Amino acid sequence: MSNYTEPTVLQDDEIDVTERLIQEQINVIRRNWSPAERANRHALGRARRESLLVTLGIGGRVPNA
Predict the structure, then answer these.
(1) Dmax over Cα atoms in the chain, in whole Å?
(2) Plot region of 29 (φ>0 → left; ψ -120 to 50 → alpha; else → beta)
(3) Which of 7, 21, 40, 52 yields a CA-CA distance of 20 to 30 A from 58?
(4) How far apart are CA 49 and CA 61, in angstroms?
(5) What pTM value is reported for the model?
(6) How many CA atoms are closer than 13 Å to the CA of 37, on its beta-carbon side?
(7) How far apart (Å, rounded) are the C-alpha atoms in residues 59 and 33?
(8) Phi first, then psi: what are they for 9, rounded to 5°?
């Protein structure tokens, strides 16, 4: 049986700080990517966007984003 934990209620300023810290960590990780890894992840992101558009019935190519 799992333990139930009450949800934590964060104030707006706490959420802003948390989001900023997460984004900073993402940026640190991305800065360390090699050019090959960056290109691979860019292509993967494009493929995911295209797949989502097809799933939503919008279809078509995604402009370079």
Answers:
(1) 49
(2) alpha
(3) 40
(4) 9
(5) 0.48
(6) 6
(7) 30
(8) -100, 120
Q: Which amino acid is at 27?
A: N
Cβ(64)–Cβ(50) below 8 Å: no
How far apart (Å, rounded) are the C-alpha atoms in residues 65 and 53?
14
Rounded to whole angstroms, how far apart are CA atoms 29 and 15? 21
Give the CA angle between residues 5, 21, 38 to the nearest 5°: 115
